[in-house]
Specification:
Blueprint lengths: L1 E4 L4 E4 L7 E6 L10 H19 L3 E6 L6 H9 L4 H18 L15 H13 L3 E3 L5 E3 L15 H8 L14 E6 L8 E3 L2 E5 L1 H15 L6 E7 L3 H16 L4 E7 L2 E3 L2 E2 L10 H7 L2 H9 L7 E3 L1 H18 L9 H12 L4 H10 L6 H10 L12 H25 L3 H13 L2 E4 L7 E4 L1
Parallel strand pairs: 3-4, 3-10, 10-11, 12-14
Antiparallel strand pairs: 1-2, 5-6, 6-7, 7-9, 8-9, 12-13, 15-16
This protein binds one RNA strand of 75 nucleotides through helix 1, helix 5, helix 7, strand 13 and helix 10.
RNA sequence: GGUGGCGUAGCCAAGUGGUAAGGCAGAGGUCUGCAACACCUUUACGCGUAGGUUCAAAUCCUAUCGCCACCUCCA
């Protein structure tokens, strides 16, 4: 297998650190709102990767964190007269529901930031002891970026170049360098929104949780300090992943991850969908209109690294195409699996998870009529062929039923007026068997209800 | 300003040196009382533009234009 490693910017042979084991950590959501289609794209990508590793018989552990403490969570919680813990749990459940609806696998581990505070304290203290971090007079703890020789390795920029970009940001006089980032932020506005630490009341810096949880999980299984794969959205490369690298590498002296993978951003009308722009759709919005398989097909028919433009025209086309394929696959067949096709599929997927090419192969091989093989391959990609429903389907079918019943009763009215009671009774009985009660009246139009 | 990415048919999208996959839409046909569905056939002398290297370039090099992202919370 070959993977494009964003650290080296090269396509590399994938060789796990521990024989057949693959440890992959992907950055999960900050849970303070409903998940959007950017999360869907990202989770869909790593689900596809996870499933493919499993198909290739690797012993894979997928870790995806939940960020459940953060300024935005605190802000929302206070607005909603809730608490950060309660609010973040509420949206964690929503996130899980969305993931489940999209048929995205459950990660093997799903650590939450606030469950690792003790480990974070130890992490920070060790960095302070090793002179990589310093405490300010107000109780912040910052990481000394200049002490890390490789800082900028992911972003591919020197400290000077990075400093140029940061010059627009508000000056923070507590920092030794404006590039330094917070490991711990003094914060005590509301007691329930902050935590006690050796450096006073506050909350952890965003980057710290990933580094800490990765260390804790790997160490607990005697897997050293280096992940096989660390992944996340393109927008996390800097500063998030860069800072994770810095913290972890300074602490352990080892690389944080062997391979770095990043998925492309979701665009809406040609510009990036983002919270600050407010131009985002939630997963629930999408599931009301499109089937889960449509969304999966849409996501996987573009290579994971590329930006993807969400638009109704494109999703419509995806739905048309995939529905047709699903219909074709309903034909019963007991042909043996076509190993040649499976090999071609694997060749595509082995090349940095080229799911677009893999899907094209499936369509192309409809001609071979080997339905079991096509279903086998679609399952590897995570399609659930038994679920072709949208969440709005119930409403749709209710509306359709109402219209059909209007029509039936109207036709039957004519039949009764013509005194063809044999036919009209036949209709009423058939409807009754279908669970629909028809009520005829002497003085008004017939009515119906479900029983 | 710095850094990275992208530009392939009406739309989406593979292809990274060997003569343009696939999907949607469109066109023609089979089927049908007529449709719809399904199925069959078909749709880029050209891969942003201009040069160059090569027997051979969408693929490599140079220049150029356009779009996007990151450097601020983000998947």
């Amino acid at each position: 297998m070959k993977i494009f490693n964003n650290l080296t910017r090269q396509l590399e042979d994938f060789i796990p650190i521990h024989s057949n084991r693959v440890n992959i950590y992907t950055c999960g959501p900050t849970v303070y709102d409903h998940s959007h289609i950017g999360h869907a794209r990202s989770c869909m990508t790593w689900d596809m990767v996870y499933r493919y590793f499993k198909h290739k018989k690797y012993q894979v552990t997928w870790i995806r964190n939940i960020t459940n403490i953060d300024d935005k969570i605190v802000k929302r919680a206070l607005e909603a007269n809730s608490s950060p813990d309660k609010l973040s749990r509420e949206f964690t459940y929503e996130f899980w529901a969305d993931m489940h609806a999209l048929n995205i696998s459950w990660p093997d581990l799903e650590p939450r930031a606030t469950d690792y505070l003790i480990e974070m304290f130890a992490f920070i203290q060790e960095l302070i002891d090793k002179n990589f971090a310093y405490v300010t007079k107000n109780g912040d703890v910052y990481f000394r970026v200049h002490k890390h020789v490789n800082y900028g390795q992911l972003k591919r920029q020197s400290l000077e170049q990075l400093a140029e970009g940061i010059s627009r940001v508000d000056e923070n006089e507590l920092k030794e360098s404006q590039l330094d980032f917070a490991l711990w932020k003094a914060f005590a506005r509301e007691p329930e929104t902050s935590f006690n630490s050796p450096w006073g009341i506050g909350r952890p810096g965003w980057h710290l949780e990933c580094s800490t949880m990765i260390k804790a999980i790997l160490n607990s299984q005697n897997l050293g300090d280096t992940l096989d794969i660390h992944a996340g959205g393109d927008d996390l490369i800097f500063p998030h992943h860069e800072n994770e690298c810095a913290q972890s590498e300074c602490l352990s002296g080892k690389a944080l991850a062997k391979y770095w993978m990043h998925n492309g951003m979701v665009m809406v009308n040609g510009s990036k969908m983002s919270k600050s722009e407010g131009n985002f759709f939630t997963i629930k919005d999408l599931l009301a209109i499109y089937k889960p398989n449509t969304i999966r097909y849409f996501c996987l028919s573009t290579h994971y690294k590329k930006q993807i433009n969400f638009g109704h025209e494109a999703l419509e086309a995806a739905e048309q195409g995939f529905d047709k394929l699903v219909k074709f696959l309903e034909t019963p067949s007991d042909e043996p699996l076509n190993q040649e096709l499976i090999q071609a599929f694997e060749n595509a997927m082995d090349n940095d998870f080229n799911s677009a090419q893999a899907l094209a192969l499936i369509f192309e091989n409809k001609d071979n009529k080997n339905i079991p093989t096509l279903i086998f391959l679609l399952k590897i990609l995570g399609f659930d062929l038994n679920n072709q429903e949208t969440t709005a389907n119930n409403e749709k079918s209710e509306a359709a039923l109402a219209q059909v019943m209007d029509l039936v009763l109207d036709l039957r009215k004519t039949i009764r007026e013509n005194k063809d009671f044999v036919t009209s009774d036949k209709i009423r009985e058939a409807l009754s068997k279908a669970g629909i009660n028809v009520k005829d009246y002497r003085d008004k139009a017939s009515e119906w209800e479900l029983n």
